[in-house]
Specification:
Elements lengths: L8 H43 L2 H4 L3 H26 L14 H6 L2 H14 L3 E4 L10 E4 L5 E7 L7 H14 L3 E6 L5 H7 L4 E4 L1 H12 L3
Helix pairs in contact: 1-3, 1-5, 6-7
């Protein structure tokens, strides 16, 4: 399979970065505010049920009924908001350029993670980009319809990946309690690393395979 070299690096990077940053800001902002609202509401309910404040009992009947109705409405509203944010959303069309390994290796580590995220989005996964300081070894977090969760490590390497990297990924998989883990790299993967991963919920994608996947996805609508 012949893979054309993509020479316009800036043209290649910018659409992915803009889409990733915009979607990440929206998703992270929505989840953050929903968690805050949920925490505040739960604290209020615990206060009402456990402390049973006397001032509530002294409220006029109309206000007490209004308070109860507001609490029921709050519960239903929060449930609806959680369902809306958690519901799989239709992804915007993703365009994948055909690139070779030299082009991928020329990207920064962050840009490489963004590119791999777009490949998974093209395959229909929900993707959250976690690659930053304190990411606990997880660059991408994937979600499938049905709630199955997977993690991805992106390694923009030239030297071959050994079993130590795969063992580290497996430990991260267990710590994250995910269903599956992917290692995506621009390098080769040693036979000993592949043997160690055999029989485990791990998928290892080396540089040659990554270029082939990119070529296939770049020709899909």
């Amino acid at each position: 399979m012949i893979i054309a070299r993509f020479t316009g690096r800036q043209q290649f990077r910018q659409p992915f970065l803009q889409l990733h940053q915009a979607s990440s800001r929206l998703a992270q902002g929505g989840w953050r505010w929903l968690r805050v609202l949920t925490a505040v509401f739960l604290l209020w309910l615990f206060y009402r049920l456990l402390a049973q404040p006397t001032w509530v009992a002294r409220l006029p009947a109309a206000l007490a009924e209004l308070l109860s109705l507001s609490e029921v409405a709050g519960v239903l509203t929060l449930i609806c908001l959680w369902l809306v944010l958690a519901w799989p959303r239709r992804q915007l069309p993703v365009t994948i350029p055909t690139v070779d390994l030299d082009t991928l290796y020329a990207l920064s580590p962050y840009d490489f993670e963004v590119f791999v995220a777009q490949l998974f989005r093209k395959k229909g996964y929900g993707v959250q980009h976690r690659g930053r300081s304190g990411d606990m070894g997880v660059d991408l977090e994937l979600m499938q319809v049905g709630g199955r969760r997977a993690i991805v490590q992106c390694k923009r390497y030239r030297s071959a990946i050994g079993p130590d990297v795969v063992r580290e990924l497996y430990g991260t998989l267990i710590h994250e309690q995910a269903a599956h883990a992917f290692l995506v790299t621009t390098a080769d993967i040693s036979e000993s690393a592949r043997q160690w991963a055999r029989g485990k919920p791990l998928t290892l994608i080396d540089g040659t395979t990554l270029a082939q996947i990119t070529a296939v996805l770049s020709h899909r609508d």
